[in-house]
Write a structure and sequence with these properties.
Elements: H1 8-11, H2 15-26, H3 31-38, H4 42-60, H5 66-76, H6 82-101
Length: 102
């Protein structure tokens, strides 16, 4: 069997995210079953899935700037609040724009 290339969106996920995806597939995509397995409520599992979807979308976004991607990922992981993330991205874009005009 030939070595397969791992897609960028998968390589950017943490081990915990990959384990969640595996359990989700084995549960046939049932969030109710996932909630039972993890011993949490359905909304908790739904929130976790939504964050995982955001991470995957972020990795596939056309933005292409590693700094902006990092800021967005920190906000998705709730390690940075959304307003601070927005301000950092705006300031960064302004700086990049000013540099390109120089």
């Amino acid at each position: 069997m030939a070595l397969q290339i791992i897609p960028e969106w998968i390589s950017g996920l943490e081990e915990e995210d990959l384990a969640f995806i595996k359990r989700f597939l084995l549960a046939s995509g049932s969030l109710k079953e996932m909630a039972r397995q993890y011993g949490v409520s359905y909304p908790t599992v739904r929130l976790r899935l939504d964050r995982l979807i955001q991470k995957i979308q972020l990795s596939e976004s056309a933005e292409g700037d590693p700094y902006i991607a990092l800021i967005k990922e920190l906000a998705i992981d709730e390690r940075l609040d959304l307003e601070t993330a927005r301000l950092l991205i705006q300031a960064y874009k302004k700086t990049k724009k000013e540099e390109s005009l120089s």
